[in-house]
Design brief:
Shape of chain B: flat
Oligomer: heterodimer
Largest sheet of chain B: none
Strand content of chain B: under 5%
Radius of gyration of chain B: 24 Å
Number of domains of chain A: 1
CATH superfamily of the largest domain in chain B: MetI-like
CATH architecture of chain A: Orthogonal Bundle
Order of helices and strands of chain B: HHHHHHHHHH
Distance between the termini of chain A: 53 Å
Strand content of chain A: under 5%
Distance between the termini of chain B: 27 Å
Number of domains of chain B: 2
CATH class of the largest domain in chain B: Mainly Alpha
Number of strands of chain B: 0
Shape of chain A: globular
Number of strands of chain A: 0
Order of helices and strands of chain A: HHHHHHHHH
Largest interface: A-B, 71 and 66 residues
Number of helices of chain B: 10
CATH topology of chain A: MetI-like fold
CATH topology of the largest domain in chain B: MetI-like fold
CATH class of chain A: Mainly Alpha
Radius of gyration of chain A: 21 Å
Chain lengths: 226, 293
């Protein structure tokens, strides 16, 4: 317990970073993923092709590689840093934002596939009715299909977001001070492997289980009754 | 998709023109982005022969890349075997008629789906190091295999459960009517049929395992991504090195994913046997409470 009291501030700070990484990446991934889904469903073959290639490339690449590429490739080699170089917290900010970028790019592929599977749950008659009323593809998607699709896939979308929460640990590969990085540090200094491991495992259980329950409840509540 | 779809009508003359215009704009945008990337790479000298030439030398492959490939394949192969064993035990445990066994299996499965793989790897790595369980040479490998086995075992348990639950009820009922015990029903009636329907998802799970070996990067495991960065630091070509590693990974994983979808379609078409589970995006199934469809 002494270890916990000694490190409690740092532990909460680290999990707070984990939460921030999750929230920012989730927003980015939901937006990008929905755009990609729209591209894959659109009547323009060129857009279909881009959407499909994106998903196939990103889904088959390890997240670690994407995150490390954003640091070693984008920031160090190309000088794309996304933070103010003069700022005293430059390195921390830059790594955090690069991690968010990597997580967004990666998770968007899964969001895209989830949204697409949601569109498939909408009965054909709905899209046909919309078309016969003269809706364009854009209107059809925005007014008829997507609202129902999102409600239908709330539970799998929750799983995508939980996977994202767990994936934020990989940001420690580029030195973002989140839970996994602190865990490694704490084990190295205190050598209390089992106790420290227990704290962090519990931390993630506390983060992910309620999220699963929340989305399960939301999914049932919001389900489109047919 | 040039013809009609449920979502839009077959394009008439105006729609066709509009689609061509959108295609044109897309090409321009893509070309502009490609140009920006190209000039950026060029300005930093990433496209010179010197940055790419090392990939034509045998030394780079034998010293760096191949040991990484070996590490990735070893960890993935061992983990998938262990995970299958663990997964079948836990999956059958969750289907057990014993409340106690069912309860314990459920807790284990949900726990390992709730905790990130990296946390498990770090934990196992330092646990083995502190108690001298493995020689230091194999510490990282053992850590990676432990993490991957626990996580994927939990996911496979859910796949097994979904596979068995997807079978027609009559199968189990007929077995009981013939006087088979629960164990006999599981072993000789339900599991053999479930395995067929699980195959596509299990193959997709191999992709997840292959990708996740890269998480071992953080416990100094010698796998492809780590070796990619090693190439980058010794030849000063991070971008080409990581691109080559990514291409290798994408080729193998894409091939496996394609095979999984092909197998799923084939099984779906065949009249015999149960319908297969979906081979699609499996990443999410690692979330606690997530259902395997």
């Amino acid at each position: 317990m002494e270890i916990f009291t000694e490190y409690s501030d740092q532990i909460f700070a680290a999990f707070w970073t984990t939460i921030q990484l999750t929230v920012f990446s989730a927003i980015g991934a939901l937006v990008l993923g929905t755009v990609l889904a729209a591209m894959r469903l659109a009547p323009v073959p060129m857009l279909n092709w881009i959407g499909t290639s994106y998903v196939n490339i990103v889904r088959n690449t390890p997240l670690t590689l994407i995150i490390i590429f954003s640091s070693l490739g984008l920031a160090q080699t190309l000088g794309v840093t996304m933070a103010n170089r003069q700022s005293p917290t430059f390195i921390v900010d830059s790594n955090f934002r690069l991690a968010v970028l990597g997580l967004t790019v990666y998770t968007a592929a899964f969001v895209c596939e989830t949204v697409r599977s949601g569109v498939n749950t909408v009965p054909l008659g709905q899209a046909e009715a919309a078309r016969s009323l003269g809706f364009s593809f854009g209107q059809n998607l925005a007014i008829v299909l997507l609202p129902q699709a999102f409600r239908a896939v709330l539970i799998p979308m929750g799983s995508v977001l939980i996977a994202l929460t767990k994936n934020t640990t990989i940001a420690s590969a580029i030195g973002v001070a989140e839970a996994a990085l602190l865990m490694k540090e704490m084990i190295e200094t205190t050598a209390a492997v089992i106790f420290v491991g227990g704290i962090f495992a519990l931390g993630f259980v506390i983060l992910t289980l309620p999220l699963g329950l929340l989305f399960g409840w939301l999914g049932k509540r919001m389900a489109v009754s047919r | 998709m040039t013809g009609a779809s449920v979502l839009f009508d077959a394009p008439g003359p105006r729609a066709r023109v509009r689609n061509h215009v959108i295609s044109g704009i897309t090409v321009v945008v893509v070309a502009a982005v490609a140009w920006v990337v190209y000039s950026r790479l060029d300005a930093k000298g990433q496209l010179t022969v010197a940055k790419w030439e090392p990939f034509l030398t045998a030394n780079l492959w034998t010293t760096y890349v191949l040991p990484g490939v070996q590490g990735t394949l070893t960890a993935a192969a061992v983990s998938i075997v262990f995970a299958l064993v663990l997964g079948f035990l836990l999956g059958v445990g969750r289907l057990s008629t014993h409340t106690g066994i069912r309860w314990v299996s459920s807790v284990i499965v949900e726990f390992f789906r709730a905790v990130p793989v990296l946390i498990m790897m770090i934990f196992a790595y330092f646990l083995y190091a502190n108690y001298d369980i493995f020689p230091s040479k194999h510490l990282a490998l053992a850590g990676v295999i432990t993490g991957l086995t626990l996580y994927n075992g939990a996911v496979i348990a859910e796949i097994v459960r979904a596979g068995v639950n997807a079978l027609p009820r009559g199968q189990g009922e007929a077995a009981s009517a013939l006087g088979l015990t629960w164990g006999q029903t599981m072993r000789s009636i339900l599991l053999p049929q479930a395995v067929t329907s699980m195959l596509p998802v299990l193959i997709s799970q191999v992709v997840v395992v292959l990708k996740d070996t890269a998480i071992g990067y953080q416990i100094t495991f010698v796998e492809m991504v780590r070796q990619g960065t090693a190439v980058g630091s010794s030849y000063g070509n991070y971008i080409p090195a990581l691109i080559v590693i990514a291409l290798l990974m994408i080729t193998v994983n894409f091939g496996l994913s394609w095979f999984a979808t092909w197998l799923e379609r084939r099984l779906r078409q065949s009249k015999r046997g149960p319908a297969p589970l979906e081979a699609g995006a499996v990443e999410q199934e690692g979330a606690p409470g997530a259902k395997v469809v």
